[in-house]
């Protein structure tokens, strides 16, 4: 049986240490609740199951003695309105820099594949006030399932502008960056190459002429069984609950003709994935194209592409299902962006400490067991 023993002395925590110099925009002479205590309260309350400032206040009042085993909390717990006001005025860029500083300090961080994708917090906007829902673009280490960096997409902008900002935050040297079709842009490809990374980018009709040339060439070569070009090939077959899915991955390594015509930065190969899914004896087929700077063979490229979906399955889905992100109604000024960053921090800590527990089970156990929560806080960052 796991011990419920919790710490009895106040000492710095690895996560909080990276946020201690974050500028507090409140009038210092009137501050009763230190910023570091507010951030710590929100972090552990979110880990333990709180999904809004009201629930964070309730958690704090119920667990005040536990909180005081880490930090003084001399004046107790601020109200949910006070918590919301603090998050609304914190500089989100500075807050993100602190988050990035913490992530980069994680020992043994592996960034073989970094998936970049965006997600909208659907209820963070207000139609009556003309306020759009926030859309965050995140960089995600697919092997360790950790958020490396994130940035908010400006209301009058899109992911094409935000993706380079995320790339500037992360060391991608030696890593392969995967991005959906919206990120299949020359400037983004060039930035990845300049930072000594590789890319695998989904190619769709937003790059119309390039997509058309690739499609025509692939169709011609398929008819000739790829006799005129150098390729590598890999096949996977998956069977699960009456579903059979076959994927044929062909990497075309001989693309000098394409580079002469389009001069795409760093391009070394075209990837073709032909998938056939059979369910109840009904089959559907799909063909997808990718651009890559990698010189790897088809089997490795297949693994990289499959790993991209970790950002959907292990981040976006987790945020929606386990953290109720799409139900969150935090809307004031910078509060939605800063709360999203704190939610990512909680997600990272749980990912490193929950073991075989699901994220839902990990949050519940953290809420029920002070000993387990203390273990997360002490041991998640060795």
Please name the defining characteristics of this protein.
elongated, 9-stranded mixed sheet, 9 strands, alpha+beta
Tell me the β content. 15-25%
* Global Rg: 23 Å
- Helix and strand run: HHHHHHEEEHEHEHEEHEEHHHHH
Number of strands: 9
Spatial gap, N to C terminus: 23 Å
Strand order of the largest sheet: 3-2-1-4-5-9-8-7-6
The pLDDT mean sits at: 85
Structure write-up:
- The protein is α+β, with helices and mostly antiparallel strands and 382 residues long.
- Among the domains are: 14-102 and 334-379, no CATH class; 198-292, no CATH class.
- The chain is 42% helix and 19% strand.
- The chain contains 15 helices and 9 strands.
- The chain has a 9-stranded mixed β-sheet, sandwiched between helices.
- A hairpin with a 2-residue loop joins strand 8 and strand 9.
- The relative contact order is 0.14.
What's the arrangement of secondary structure elements?
Elements: H1 14-17, H2 35-47, H3 53-62, H4 64-67, H5 80-89, H6 92-104, E1 113-120, E2 135-141, E3 146-152, H7 159-169, E4 176-179, H8 186-194, E5 198-203, H9 208-223, E6 231-240, E7 243-252, H10 256-262, E8 269-279, E9 282-292, H11 298-308, H12 310-321, H13 335-353, H14 359-368, H15 370-379
Parallel strand pairs: 1-4, 4-5
Antiparallel strand pairs: 1-2, 2-3, 5-9, 6-7, 7-8, 8-9
Helix pairs in contact: 2-3, 2-13, 3-5, 5-13, 6-13, 7-8, 13-15, 14-15
């Amino acid at each position: 049986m796991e011990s419920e023993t919790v710490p009895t002395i106040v000492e710095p925590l690895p996560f909080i240490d990276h946020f201690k110099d974050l500028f507090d925009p409140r009038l210092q002479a009137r501050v009763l609740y230190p910023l570091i205590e507010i951030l710590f309260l929100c972090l552990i309350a979110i880990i333990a199951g709180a999904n809004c400032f009201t629930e964070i206040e309730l958690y704090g009042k119920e667990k005040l003695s536990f909180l005081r085993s880490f930090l003084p909390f001399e004046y107790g717990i601020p109200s949910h309105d006070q918590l919301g006001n603090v998050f609304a005025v914190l500089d989100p860029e500075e807050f993100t820099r602190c988050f990035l500083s913490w992530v980069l300090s994680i020992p043994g961080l592996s960034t073989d594949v970094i998936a970049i994708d965006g997600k909208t917090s659907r209820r963070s906007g207000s139609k009556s006030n003309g306020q759009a829902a926030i859309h965050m673009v995140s960089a995600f280490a697919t092997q360790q399932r950790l958020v490396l960096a994130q940035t908010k997409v400006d209301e009058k902008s899109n992911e094409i502008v935000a993706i380079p900002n995320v790339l500037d935050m992360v060391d991608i040297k030696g890593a392969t960056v995967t991005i959906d079709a919206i990120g299949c842009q020359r400037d983004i490809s060039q930035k990845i190459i300049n930072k000594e990374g590789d890319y695998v980018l989904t190619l769709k009709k937003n790059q119309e002429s390039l997509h058309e040339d690739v499609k025509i060439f692939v169709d011609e070569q398929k008819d000739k069984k790829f006799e005129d070009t150098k390729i590598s090939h890999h096949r996977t077959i998956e069977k699960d609950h009456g579903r059979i899915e076959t994927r044929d991955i062909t990497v075309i390594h001989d693309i000098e003709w394409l580079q002469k015509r389009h001069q795409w930065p760093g391009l070394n190969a075209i990837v073709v994935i032909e998938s056939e899914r059979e369910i109840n004896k009904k089959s559907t087929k799909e063909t997808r194209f990718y651009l890559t700077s990698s010189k790897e063979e088809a089997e490795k490229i297949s693994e990289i592409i499959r790993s991209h979906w970790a950002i959907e399955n292990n981040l976006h889905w987790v945020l929606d299902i386990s953290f109720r992100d799409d139900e969150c109604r935090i809307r004031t000024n910078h509060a939605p962006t800063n709360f999203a960053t704190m939610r990512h921090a909680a997600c990272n800590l749980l990912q490193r400490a929950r073991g075989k527990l699901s994220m839902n089970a990990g949050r519940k156990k953290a809420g029920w067991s002070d000993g387990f929560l203390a273990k997360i806080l002490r041991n998640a960052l060795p």
